[in-house]
Each structure stands twice: as C-alpha cells, then as structure tokens.
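haha ok so turns out i had the wrong file open the whole time. this is the CORRECT one, sorry everyone. sequence first:
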Amino acid sequence: MRTLLGALGLVLSAFAVAAAAATPAVARETPAPPLERAVDDLVAAGAPGAVLLVRHEGRTLRIARGDADAAKRTPLRAGDRFRAGSVTKAFVATVVLQLAREGRLDLRDPVERWLPGAVPGGADVTLRHLLNHTSGLFNYSEDPRTFAPYEADLGYRWDPRGLVGIASDHPALFAPGADWSYSNTNFVVLGLVVEAVTGRPLATELRERIFRPAGLRHTTFDDRPRIAGRHARGYVVDAAGRRQDVTDLSPSWAWAAGALVSTADDLARFSRALLGGLLLPRGQLAEMKTIDPVTRKAPGGAGYGLGLLAAPTLCGQAWGHDGQYAGYTSLLLNRRAAREQMVLLVNRTGLTGETGRAYGRVVEAAACAGG
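then structure:
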C-alpha cells in the first residue's frame, strides 16, 4: 500500500495543465478517423480507457476505446461514469454565484462571517479569494497526512473540517489577493460556506440547483467509495510501472474540490447550461469569466476566473476546467458561447511520458475541426 500511496502523492497534488493548451473540437455526423486513431494511440500508450466527446451546433461525436475494467477486460462505453475530479469546482462555484444573486451571501464576505475560527486570517480572506485561488491558503492535499489513512483503509472518511484543519497547520503562502496558487482547500471551505448559508448539505444544493435544472441524470456528488452504476474503474501507475486499481478510494478527501461523478454527455450538458445562461444570468457569467493580472498566473498563462479556467486556443477562447482524481483524468472545455464542447475522460492519472504525449495528441486532433 505504501507503493500505492507514493503513486497517489505524485498525481493528486498536481494541478493538471492540459487545459491551457487544449482546443475544443467540432463534431461530425460520422466518426473522424484522425480522432479515432488518436484515441486508439492513447490507449496503446498506456491509458486503460478513454472517452472523447466533441459537440458542435447540436451534433455530437462520441469515441470510447479501451477497458472500463482492465482486470475483466470490460470494454469502455461512452456513457460510463467517471470521477470528474476538479471539474467539480465549476459546479460548486456556480452554486456560490447563485447564492450571491439571491442576496444570501456576497463575494466580498470574509470567510470569518460564515465559518468563525475555521481559517486562520479568515477575516481577510473573502469568498472571491477562494473562488479564484488568490486566498493564499495552503493546499491540504500536498500534506502527506491527507492520504496516510488510506494505507490501511481506502474507505477512510474525512470530515471536510478535518481537511481544512490540515491546511490551517501551514502558514499562508501569501497575503490574500497578492498572488495565485491553486488550492483544493479553497473549495472545501466554499462547500462549508454553502452549507452554512443554506442549512442544507452541499450534495442537496448541487442536485437541486444544477443537476436537475440542467438535466444531468447521470451525475452525483458522491460521499461513498463505491461508484454506482456502469462506470470506469480508475488506475494509478507506481514507480515500478505497475498499474493499481484505486477506484474505491474514498471521495471524502476531495469533497467540494473534486468528488463529482459524471459522464461525458452530462459534463458537456452542464457546460452548455452554464455558458448558455441557464444556470447564471449574463452579468454573473461575465464576472465568473473575469481574469485579472494575478489570476493570469494559472498554468500556461491561461488565467483563472471564479471556478472557471480560461484556455486561449488557436481557434479562440475556451472556458472550462480540468481535473485529476486518483485514477481519473478529465478535461471539459466550451467554446463559441456554448455551441461547442469537448470532453476527454481517461481512467488513469499520471499521464507522463508517451502516455502524456498521446493525451496531448488527442486534444490536438480534436482541435479546430470546425474552424
């Protein structure tokens, strides 16, 4: 298990940067051979399985290759469920902005107002600082204590406040608003704020405010290790190159920062609902997409808004998020005011070497297909 935890440490503390260079694609009525070959190559390079969805003007192309379960050699299907990792942050940010629209909170509110004593210096850290990762709060998932319990029990359940406590044991990285640093702690704190404001579980708010209105029938915010329904099992590769199944790792370690489970179609549908104005009005969408000089320090110089990553591409500005959760890599991008989406899901983390290059080629092959 120590070998497994070493592999987890490598993949869970990093913020995936693929979105900075990714470009969404245009779907065709029949499969595009270059896209098929690129996904085939990704599987041949070491990904157990991969799902690529590209959508343009109402037409959708789905490609699924490889295995959902490598041990049983169960073929992956385009509708299989994956852990979406940090794509969860875009969902949580949407709920926070909805509450702001309703006047139930203000993005200028200090954390201390809603969670007294929970965060050192909480009187100076605002909800906006949390949303755009300028809080300076240490990323708890970079502390080995986060994953130590899983050496004995993959089902170990973290309380969100315990995760915030780990982060609070570390000094702030910088004064709030002075710099940018991606931190899962920001969104765990936001999840707790949502619960404090509404008096209801975060899972309930996500279901009522996003899943149901957007028609996401295969999306859940999970708090249990086992994924319900037909799903892809997730794998990490240790230092010796051995593939290990970590599907049943408790999602409690990620909670509001990454515990979502979804499908490629549902993630594309969420993106259309959000960027198309169903979930937030135009003014709040503009605020969500605001990039300032500090948040432009996100990987690749793409910039980070309020729970939303900006990705300039050869074919125009894209918006979305990427994610890495133990055993799962995800990328969601939207372009042309919700008319184009690209979703890429892989049931492995640690996409380095040839696997990482093959992943990049899939994104490249999907780029700018429609101009």
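The longest strand covers residues 59-69.
again sry for the mixup
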